[in-house]
Structures
1.
Amino acid sequence: MADTYEQDRLAALAERRAAEFEGPDHRSLEARFGPGSFGCHDAMHVTHLVVDLMERELLGHSAVLLNPFWYGRVREAQALLYSAYNSVAQEHLEASLPADDSGKDGSTH
């Protein structure tokens, strides 16, 4: 399954790379979305929102509470997503701003 995920990731990345210089922002994907960039901060923020959404809307939902399997799966998914959030946050906060991104949006991370 991990091979399938990696194939999917690489295919999606190839599509993004093919179009990365077509829009008004001609910086590379790494400059726009790599650790230290506003794009990376956005991914970190959205991940945290989804973890919170799962806590608030799924774990306390009566249908989920009634079914131990569903509850366990939601907890597992939440734990995996939180682990991803921590990994992104660590890399993002340890990185310096990309040279062509610093100060452009007013953020420092």
2.
Amino acid sequence: MDFFKYINIPVFVVSLILGMMAMYITLPETRKIYVFPTPENIDVLQYRDKTGTCFSFKQKEVDCPKSESDISTIQPQG
């Protein structure tokens, strides 16, 4: 093919590997930021769970139950 007479394959492979190594080394470190819903940010943020599903919360004021056995605790995914 005429295409390969313009490209030196060994030089291309070496430069590709060096470029990939340079990108791997210079990429910024990723970090997870955990944000919990508060009354101030309830309308602003969207959240994503471990399965990748996006959701948001709606704030609703309710009366507390009289019995403590009616109160349930939901653990956050971590």
